[in-house]
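subagent[fold] <- orchestrator: predict structure for attached chain, return tokens only, no commentary.
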Amino acid sequence: MEDEPLDEWAPRREQRRPARGERRATPLGDQQHGTHVVPDAPRGIQEWDGDQWVPVGVANDLAAAADETGKGPPRRWTDSALRVLGAQVEDQVGVAISEGI
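subagent[fold] -> orchestrator:
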């Protein structure tokens, strides 16, 4: 296998990297599951400085982390895509999904 020339690889790498100043929320502690599992748990806020993720603060919960990072909380089953799916199921079987919950 031949190595890819650096001048071809480097621009693609830059496109995949976060933008300088981009923020993300990460669970604090030993949480090894999705952020939606414990939405009230505090989150660490990290910012990309161009080379690495740097801690810049702590958010009290998932909603506060979403405010800090500009990224909304994870989609819920009530989001539009699933509401459309629910309407399609209701049309086919005559029972609303919400009645079965």
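orchestrator: received. Logging for downstream: The chain has two domains: 18-70, 75-101. The chain has three helices and three strands.
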